[in-house]
Amino acid sequence: MKKALINANLVMPDHIIRKATLVIENGRIADFGTKIDTDGMEVTDLQGAYVGPGLIDIHTHADGEVFFTEDPIRASATLLSHGVTDVMPALYFSATAEQLVEQVATIREAMTSGKANNIIGLYMEAPYLNPDYGCNREQNPWRDPVSKERFQPVVDAAYDLARVWCLAPERENIEEFVQYVKEKNPRAIFSVAHSEAEPGDIERLMPYGLKLATHHTNATGTLHRYPECRSACVDETALYNDSIYTELICDKVGIHVDPYMLRLIKKIKGDDRIILIADAFVEHGPIPDGDLYAGADDINFDFAGEIAGSKMILDGPCRNMMTHTGASLCQVFKYASTNPATLLGLSDRGCIKKGNVANLLVVDPEFSVLQVYLGGNRVK
What we know:
Shape: globular
Number of strands: 18
Helix content: 25-40%
Radius of gyration: 21 Å
Structural class: alpha/beta
Distance between the termini: 20 Å
Number of helices: 9
Oligomer: single chain
Strand content: 15-25%
Largest sheet: 8 strands, mixed
């Protein structure tokens, strides 16, 4: 039987269709508009709530309490209840090759279990990042030179699931790694991450598919070629190149990315090249003292007092982006659904369109989650 969501405000990429109806059939969007005959359908009255595409989180390690690599079914269910209908669990560089291979197997098993249907692949924040950046960097087992003997087992285990591979372009012989990944999966995307690369280092890898900047302004270096003169580095290169998407961790206090910087990035990159992420991690260090961190209860800190990702799920960054930048519902749905879908080449989701998978999120004007649909079935 067809399902009809009536009295809905449909959030499109650049406008809202008010007092509309959306029809679901066989797990997909069959029709939508303001003049839909719903006779014979199963009708749900949304009473003016806003309906947008389900959220797509391309980069998160956990649900704030448990890592995907520990319990992927639990973590995926928690995210789904917050409207994340597609997620790419992130694996981290602090793991050895053997551990990464085991973690890939854990996620693969969850994906085939039928109990984690919102997991769509992997985000490999490993192995070859700059060892001077990122939380738990003292545990980095990948400080040695790039070596096919070491990386090949990881790539061979993950290549068909890994949609994004992070790397530091300044690592010596990094092209050997990039070329092997592309041999295994020509559609692989690369992201500059945990890096102090110069523009030329980054742009050299763009023809291979480098088109993403991992958690923009976090774990990136600042270059000083001359005394007291600031040069261009990772963040500036990402802003300059129109084809590079910038990930943003948008916490409620504005620690990961200062609110003024968020507004600057929004102005420079425009609405089509921003991707909101949660980058949730699991650490139990205390919130550091001082006014700067007052109220930063959606951020993880390690016991050295350093930021270690967030405790957020992606609906939180959407709300925070609206607060810090004045972004509209249309814009945050683009940042958290349309844009990641475009980056990944997921042409059947990320926006409300006939024929698209009926992964849908129903929210109020403040982006509080009211209902969630996965493949046309209500899960919340």
